[in-house]
Amino acid sequence: MISIIYDQYTRLWAVLLSAMLLILVSACAGIPLQEISDARQALSAAEEVKADEYAPIHYERAETLLGRAERAMAAGDYDKARGEATFAREEAFKARERSLEALQHGPK
């Protein structure tokens, strides 16, 4: 009788531990580290071609969005952080493209 009760509690603990591990792993997978890293790299690439000078609107927007993404991640709002980082990367790409155009063809 005691061994049956012990087996039931052991199984219950095993199920609970497995569920907690699954939650922990899925929460870690949701952290948008790659998206924020991509946005930082895109901003750095834009900076290398003087996007702050030749495409200031897109460049500043990318900086603002990246800052929002970093604050959202620090606050644990990973969905917002992911979205802001993605938009920051896109704006940084636009800034880089516009800056390269300006460097090739001269400012308009």
For this entry, give a set of tags.
about 110 residues; mainly alpha; rod-shaped
Describe this structure in words.
With 108 residues, the protein is mainly alpha-helical. It has 2 domains: 30 residues; 75 residues. 88% of the residues lie in helices and 0% in strands.
Question: What does the overall shape look like?
Answer: rod-shaped
Q: How is the biggest beta sheet arranged? A: none
Strand content: under 5%
Query: What share of residues is helical?
Result: over 70%
Outline:
The protein is an all-alpha fold and 108 residues long. The chain has helices spanning 2-29, 33-48, 51-54, 56-74, 78-105.
How do the strands and helices of this protein lay out in sequence?
Blueprint: H1 2-29, H2 33-48, H3 51-54, H4 56-74, H5 78-105
